Amino acid sequence: MTRRIVARRSPIHGNGVFAVAPIRKGEEVIQYKGTLMTHAEADDMYGDGGETGHTFLFTLNDEYIVDANRHGNSARWINHSCAPNCRAVVEEAADGDPRHDKVLIEAIRAIKPGEELTYDYGIILEVPHTARLKKLWKCLCGAPNCTGTLLKPKR
User: Fold this and answer.
1) Cα torsion for 114, 74, 54, 41, to the nearest 10°?
2) SS3 category, 83
């Protein structure tokens, strides 16, 4: 299979993932991989998640989180954008076991070679969004519609 993506330094932030071949709208690009852990294990290991402004934790379902800090793949380097070209989709396992659910990154529009892959992280923190937290979770995507933060309003 031809390699369609590559991780390298990003003008948005740190590392990024870039298309090296055309990617069609609706195409699955990569699975977000890492170590499966419970929400309680993630809290014990990383705290409440709001204080670093940087994480490789992806909520899989009500029971589990994927920790791409451990055994993660290049999907962890896909940056956030307020005008993304991809989205993250949680695919529920056919066997009904929440441990077998998967996070898939798929293109929401055609992506040309050289374009950086991005998706909206949709981060919701259940703590007050203070000026300090908003600065920690500052968005650097540069999109015309950039909200300035990776944080979404609490539900």
Assistant:
1) 160
2) coil
pLDDT at 131: 85
User: For the chain, how long is the longest CA-to-CA vector?
Assistant: 46
pLDDT, averaged per 10 consecutive residues of the chain (155 residues), comes to 88 95 97 95 76 77 94 96 97 96 98 97 83 87 92 79
**d(Cα 154, Cα 151) in Å, to the nearest integer?**
9
Q: For the chain, what is the radius of gyration of the CA atoms?
A: 16
The dotted CATH code for 5-121 is 2.170.270.10
pLDDT recorded at residue 112: 98
Its pTM stands at 0.90
Closest CA to 29 of 70, 85, 93: 85
Per-domain residue ranges of the chain: 5-121
Give SS3 for 123.
Answer: strand
